Amino acid sequence: xxxxLLVVSPVRNxxxxxxxxxxxxxxxxxxxxxxxxxxxxSTDETPQILAQVARRLEFMExxxxxxxxxxxxxxxxxxxxxxxxxxxxxxxxxxWQSFTHIAKLDGDxxxxxxxxxxxxxxxxxxxxxxxxGGVLEExxxxxxxxxxxxxxxxxxxxxxxxxxxxxxxxxxxxxxLAWDAIDEIYARMRGYRTRTLSRLVARHHRPTASADGILRxxxxxxxxxxxVRFTLPxxxxxxxxxAAERPRALSGFAFLYGYLRSALLRVPRVDxxxxxxxxRRELRERLRLELAGRVPRGERLVSVASRER
Length: 309
Fold this sequence. Notes:
By secondary structure, the chain is α/β, with parallel strands linked by helices.
């Protein structure tokens, strides 16, 4: 079967980055069959830039998301899961079932030129692969460096690619906080592999966080860990790793605080006994591998930065 690729990009106020994202897509050795950009009520020059770019790219379309209930877009978009809502709007408008692969790409991610060619190649080689994506690098002063240590099973929500069968099997994307962990866990529960392609490095032009700042973003990630029922020992170990990220030390405290605060407030968690049991089994195995120093890491070979060096 020929592969057909749909890329959906939920964007809001991305005037500073969206043209670079578009240029990177235009330079792909395997372009999307459709790039659908969902403008989520931008208040800057994003709509005008999108209209200009769409006139130049025959594979690009632009639509608007549904208005927010209160008429005002939320400030902390991670907290209300605005990106997956806009993503689902895009899926509904694109007729996603007619595509074999569906990717989510944020409006501040610049891809290396062979990105989709290599991602689709991995799906072609591995019939069990349901969800895949590369890793991100962010600017630290004048240098670019990996935003988070890559592992072999978690794909960043900013650049995920699903097979259609996997997306159908997991029931689509949940419009809630922690959606980008919930989807992966359900994919593995349904027998699909989730894989980070650590050789493919994309540039993230806006640092990972919510609109209220990096530490608030770290705390939200701790809340996500609670929602998907990660255990306290695992989260504590993870907090030491997060502590190495900007701002150092404080990031780890914020991550752990977000988890503990969610437990204290009894934030609603994924209410599925099968999901809970599966997560516990996975965490036990990963903890065993962590302690044995056997967590696999891939080589990073393909990067946007290679075009400039």
